[in-house]
Amino acid sequence: MSTSKKSQKQDTRLAHAGRDPARFDGFVNTPIYRGSTVLYPTLQCLEANDQDYSYGRLGTPTVDALQTALAELEGGHATLLTPSGLSAISATLLSFVSSGDDILVSDSVYRPTRRFCENVLKRLGVATTYYDPLIGGGIAGLLTDKTKLVFTESPGSQTFEVQDIPAIAEAAHKRGAVVIMDNTWATPLYFKPFSHGVDVSIHAATKYIVGHADAMLGAITTNKATRAAVARTHDELGLCPGPEDVYLGLRGLRSLSVRLARHQASGLEMAEWLAGRPEVAQVIHPARPGDPGYALWQRDFTGASGLFSIVLKPCSQKALAAMLDGLTLFGMGYSWGGYESLILPFDPRSYRSATTWQVEGSALRLHIGLEDVEDLKADLDAGFARLAKA
Ligand SMILES: *Cc1c(COP(=O)(O)O)cnc(C)c1O
User: Fold this and answer.
1) pLDDT, tens digit (0-9, with 9 covering 90-100), for 28-45
2) Which residues form a coiled coil (predicted)?
3) Structural contact between residues 334 and 207, judged by C-beta atoms closer than 8 angstroms
4) Which position among 109, 260, 329, 347 has the lowest Cβ density within 10 Å, counted as fewest Cβ atoms?
């Protein structure tokens, strides 16, 4: 007896969602479809547009496979892919605003999201108000009849504030505002946006879904009510990701659960080890008891990824450079979510406006990859020794 899709566990769906081998001569993976033109067999079919595919930009079986799988895993109505996480964000924002509207955006949002609001949206006559990510139901005090949407990202970029998404969604919906969430950190596996009141969920699939630092990809998943608005903007902006990148997203997705379990365990172990280091003033990891975000993380999330931050005790720039420049396993560079460990200094003081970031030492964001944690500790241990010596 075969089980129904609905009764199957998440890991089973991760292996099977969006796949139809019988359609592709038995091949397990949906092939890479490249193409612009799709031929219609008859004039009648052309005029009625009576076939599944009409033009390369508007979808292919490869794109459909990943869209179907992501919509199912997120618990949403439908997913649309875009060429990057940022284009998923900008297309979503553009779907709901017109000149004269206001929007509310979390102060700890991914910085390029903020830039899009401050440049493009501002030029189009849309005003952005940034709010404290920890505002919760207090967001009711900022909502007006002109507020079209509330943009959330939880945990926040770099500083990992966990937002009370259900409380924010309840207040926003009372005023008719759409709730958007950048759900990249948790992936579709560890936070279910649609059962917490979110209307549109966004992923930089570039990160954990692709998982190997070899492609750029974004995903927008909507509920039923927001589907038409987002689909229309997505179509009108002409957003179509490259076929190889979509294929790499599908390929990454199949191993997401096992990779994340390791990122989570190694991340927590590294966070614990760092918390015991004399050079470290603070560890910011919402899945650690005692972290300000822990209670909400425990209530709403089912897991943690491998991305968190630390604050060092004050040291000179020269000492910091000595530590970072000599690392052999931790690389310095943007993005995260791949198999490799990364470390990146950050300082949000110059651009956050609704909250203040008050720490004395240098802040570092770490992505814990799939390496052996003992080797990662040794790499940082040697880095701390260089820092002390410089
Ligand atoms: C990286 C990132 C994005 C943007 O994704 P790209 O694919 O790089 O455009 C969006 N949101 C968050 C939280 C990210 O970390």
Assistant:
1) 999 999 999 999 999 999
2) none
3) no
4) 347
